[in-house]
Amino acid sequence: MTILSLILVAALLMVVIAIVLLVIQLSKKTRTNEELKESLSKYKDIINVDSEVSKRKAALETLGSKLSELEKVYKNKDSALNQDYLQHKAIYENLRKEVSLLEENLENISYGLYKPHYDYKTSEEFKQNLEKIIDRQRQEIKNETATYCSGNWEVRGSKTEGAKMTKHYSKLMLRAFNGECDAAIAKVRWNNIDNMEARIGKAFEAINKLGSTLQITVTKEYFDLKLQELQLEFELEEKLYQEKEEQRKIREQMREEEKAQREIEKARQEAEEEEVRNEKALQKAKAEIEKAKGQELERLTEKIKMLEENLQKAHVLKERAISRAQLTKSGHVYIISNIGSFGDTVYPKNGSWMNSPCRRIQI
Fold first, then answer.
1. C-alpha to C-alpha distance for 120 and 124, rounded to whole angstroms
2. At what angle do helices 220-289 and 123-142 cross, to 10 degrees?
3. Sorting pLDDT into bands at 50, 70 and 90, what band is 360?
4. Among 2, 7, 144, 209, which has the minimal tally of Cβ within 10 Å of its Cβ?
5. d(CA 252, CA 34)
6. Residue 357 has what DSSP assignment?
7. Coil, strand or helix at 335
8. Alpha carbon distance 96, 102 (integer Å)
């Protein structure tokens, strides 16, 4: 091959290489353009940075405004819930205190720690003094000293109308206080006396607090009278229970003594009958012994001896039964309360012993 041919071949190879490189470059440009087009299509909405920033900022401001509104709403709800909680908590505390007043606190009373305020001997004395306490309450209400008003009120410029208003409000306060006291007195039992006293004290404070606007109060003296009524009523119930138990025990003992008396009388009658039988048998044996002889005489003699012993035993049993009957009859005389037992006309009421519904008299 000549040099010229070599040169032509080399030139041809260079042309071919140049064409291949050009095709490769064009292919790369084509892909780049396509990618660019795709990116432009994908991010066409955020090409304008300022516009996008403005839009995002506006969206954030709108979202922040909504969040602020929600925060205000929830703050108001939270405040309302807190207020509602505090109100219900106060109601709960008051109810809990009320319940604690009505709970039956058995501890002190069950150990006998209640200290009586009165030492009357009979239920009649309690009733009489209870009536006196109630009469004193009526008198205080009548004298208008059960309540006190420290203000001198006028209604539409009239002192007379102000006095009427004060009297009317005082009456309402007394009715409320008396109602609370009556409810406590009606429910008082051996196991809740302290709670009922506390209940009356709480009612006294609450009603006087309501009357503080008009400067009207239930007096301490009237409050003390109500406490005395509660205590007297409680101790009266206790005394009635004690008297009832005493009556029951007396009746039970009387029944036992009557039963013992019947048994003694029955034993006495049996002893007398045995004594009579032995006496007759002895007389018959003595009559037969006069005619008996030998072994028959010995048999009758033994029989007479046995009958005499039996007669002596029967006599002893009879005397013992008579003695027991006399001892039983001369033990105690029991006087059962007139009221609720035999009627109120069985015994004369002018006897000094009638001050008590039950007395045991030793003879």
1. 9
2. 160
3. very low
4. 2
5. 122
6. S
7. strand
8. 10
